[in-house]
Design a protein that fits this description.
The chain is an alpha/beta fold and 289 residues long. The chain has eight helices and 14 strands. Helix 5 packs antiparallel against helix 6 and helix 6 packs across helix 8. The longest helix has 22 residues.
Length: 289
């Protein structure tokens, strides 16, 4: 089983980087946070805004740092509450996020007292406060998703961008956003780093990153071919295309992820001009050409 299970404290996973796994109220039930040593300790992600998660994080930090060492701050990979909700209880001296993630963080009333948020912007650069680390923008799953990259060890903290044995849910909130194309671009961006290991937030490490990234890219390109084939004789809704592409649909949770990916693929084809998009009684419909 590749899913992480909530544990008891921080364990070293790469030079200068430790991981703890906290309980989460949302599937799959646990989420990783990371402790990086710079001039002082920085926490990457904070877990959920629940008493159970906050207490698990407090105990893990106390065990790792002792009572005399304080965090320099927290880095948020993305603004989803299983990763950023713990800011409410932690209240770090400073929070660092990508600009596109800082906007929803600042707007969330539950996080209104977390203190100053500093931002980075663009597609990548050196990591503020952590001289041995850089960052790369991951797109498709959440706005402003930061992937932290250590060139010396080849380690990348990938958050929810990549998983071992699971699909990444693609963003479908904005019908004019090309989350499918953005995700493909992120695959290529990370592959160019030639990483040696990827550390996701919900599954065990991906230890052969380049073959993994190649497989995911090929799968998504095949997905586009199957989607185009399913549009013959259209128009079709995303649900109709999903039922055509996946003859036997899995349990509801996995089905929702497949439906989201299919809708993202259809929108990508429409935005690139390979398909057309319209609406029928408020529901998006697509057809070839």
């Amino acid at each position: 089983m590749s899913l992480l299970v909530a544990g008891t404290g921080f364990e070293e996973i790469a030079p200068g980087c430790r991981r703890a796994v906290l309980p989460s109220p949302w599937p799959p039930g646990a989420v990783a946070v990371f402790l990086i040593e710079g001039e002082g300790p920085w926490l990457v992600d904070t877990g959920a805004n629940t008493e159970e998660s906050a207490e698990a994080l407090r105990l893990a930090l106390e065990d790792a740092l002792g009572s005399d060492v304080s965090l320099e701050g927290a880095i948020v990979s993305h603004a989803h509450l299983d990763h950023a909700g713990g800011l409410a209880a932690l209240r770090p001296p400073v929070t660092l996020a990508h600009f596109d993630a800082a906007v929803p963080l600042a707007a969330d009333e539950r996080l209104s007292r977390i203190g100053p948020i500093r931002t980075v912007d663009g597609e990548g650069g050196l990591m503020m406060y952590l001289e041995d680390w850089a960052w790369v923008l991951g797109e498709g799953h959440a706005p402003g998703h930061l992937l932290l990259w250590n060139p010396d060890s080849g380690s990348v903290l990938v958050g929810d961008q990549f998983f071992q044995g699971l699909k990444t849910p693609l963003r479908v909130a904005d019908p004019d956003e090309d989350s499918f194309g953005d995700y493909l671009a992120t695959i290529r961006r990370v592959a160019e780093l030639e990483p040696s290991i990827l550390f996701p937030s919900h599954t065990e490490a991906i230890r052969e990153p380049l073959p993994y990234l190649e497989r995911v890219e090929r799968r998504m390109e095949r997905q586009l071919d199957r989607t185009m084939a399913a549009l013959v004789g259209g128009p079709r809704t995303a649900e109709q295309v999903t039922e055509s592409v996946y003859r036997s649909l899995p349990r509801p949770g996995a089905r929702q992820i497949l439906l989201r990916e299919q809708l993202a693929a259809l929108r990508h084809l429409a935005l690139t001009g390979e398909a057309s998009r319209g609406t029928d009684e408020g529901v998006e419909v697509f057809e070839a050409g």
